[in-house]
Amino acid sequence: MRVCGIISEYDPFHKGHERQLRLAREKSQADYMICVMSGSFTQRGMPALFSAHDRAEMALSSGADLVLQLPYAFSVREAENFALGGIGILTGLGCVTHLSFGTEYDDLATLQKAARLLEKPDEALEADLRQGLNQGLSHAEAMGRALSDRLSLEHKILNAPNTALALSYLRALVRLKSNIQPIPILRTTHYHAAEAESYPSATAMRGAALRGDWAALEKGLPAGACQVAHRALAEGHTCPPQAMDVLLEYMLMNASPESLARLPGVSEGLEMRILKAAQKAVTRQELIRLIKTRRYTQGRISRALCHGVMQITKEMLPALPGYARILGFKKEAQPLLRQLQDSGFPLVTRPAREPLMAMDLKADELWHMMAGLPRENAYQCSPVILP
């Protein structure tokens, strides 16, 4: 059995994702496609616009066979741990043979060489990294430049968003000694593209959904995903990006430097910068703008603030995922599910009030509350099953 995995967010699932699934299946000759997808919160440190189960249904209607949830402890993390969580699950399942990911640069041999250097940097690379940090660059930007110089590549190549994430996937494969074979898919649309194109970005599709631009959604989403998006928007089953603003302001009003310093991603005095900016900012977006510097990136700040609202501290985050939740599957994937039951990796189908899922259930309750929905709905979601 050939099984190809994809680590994703799908907020929402668009035609570019459909293309990747199709090409990944073709290149891997996979019998089944497994997607490990973020839950109620994404790597941007934001609540997903669409619920996890709606996004799972979008993926299943457009080429996926099984969708598992990436736990909050890894979904709202920097690229290295986001990738480690997804690869940890796919490796733990024991049957995944291939991994596919989108990237702006698809020379696999060069990407693998870069990943090995990142995992075991030599003195020269570390010296170049320190030089970049001393110039005020963020760690990611400084390492990207040092690595690009070593491999004789343009600086922008390895720092492109999806390429940087691809390197994290490859590093995780090395670190976990995984036998999963990587398959890069060349990305054709910029990650932050604001306009809907033939293969649009998720950013463009979220914008269209929030504007109520049905024509753009119908152009950018596969038919099945578009149907799910229309239903969710019509029923008010979405969480707008500004929903966290008041909760964040209240959290910071009661925060101390010591409590903020315990948040993942907060170090080097960032806690004081956050508190100072909180006195002036009215919205989350304005707050991040006031805090942001070249070293303190928007993503790092946004994730730290999300952890603050969720009351997550550094010591609460595990090194590797201990389980995955089944968000949905196709009936024809039953042979795959039977094999997964023999893997020994814990798979959960329904929420339960136990330590294993406590963080994810809290995130789900918070998402429903910010979406204006009863919190009890978070406990009533069964896996999506499609023919």
Strand content: 5-15%
**Silhouette:** globular
Please count the helical segments.
Answer: 19
| Sheet with most strands | 8 strands, mixed
What structural class do helix, strand and pairing data support?
alpha/beta
The end-to-end distance, rounded to whole angstroms, is 21 Å
Low-confidence regions? 191-196
Helix content: 40-55%
N-to-C SSE series? EHEHEHHEHHHHHEHHHHHHHHEHEHE
Radius of gyration: 20 Å
How much is the average pLDDT?
A: 93
Q: How is the quaternary structure best described?
A: single chain
How many E-type strands? Answer: 8
What does this structure look like?
Helices cover 50% and strands 11% of the residues. Strands 1, 2, 3, 4, 5, 6, 7 and 8 form an eight-stranded mixed beta sheet that branches. The chain is of the alpha/beta class and 387 residues long. The protein has helices at residues 15-28, 52-60, 72-75, 79-92, 108-119, 123-134, 139-151, 155-159, 161-175, 202-211, 214-220, 223-234, 245-253, 257-261, 270-278, 284-291, 298-310, 334-341, 358-370; strands at residues 3-8, 32-38, 66-70, 98-103, 181-186, 324-330, 347-348, 384-386. The longest helix has 15 residues, at 161-175. It has 19 helices and eight strands. It is globular and about 55 Å long.
Quick structural summary:
50% of the residues lie in helices and 11% in strands. The protein is an alpha/beta fold.
Sequence-ordered SSE layout with sheet pairings:
Layout: E1 3-8, H1 15-28, E2 32-38, H2 52-60, E3 66-70, H3 72-75, H4 79-92, E4 98-103, H5 108-119, H6 123-134, H7 139-151, H8 155-159, H9 161-175, E5 181-186, H10 202-211, H11 214-220, H12 223-234, H13 245-253, H14 257-261, H15 270-278, H16 284-291, H17 298-310, E6 324-330, H18 334-341, E7 347-348, H19 358-370, E8 384-386
Parallel strand pairs: 1-2, 1-4, 2-3, 4-5, 6-7, 6-8
Antiparallel strand pairs: 3-6
Helix pairs in contact: 2-12, 4-9, 5-9, 6-7, 11-12, 13-17, 15-16
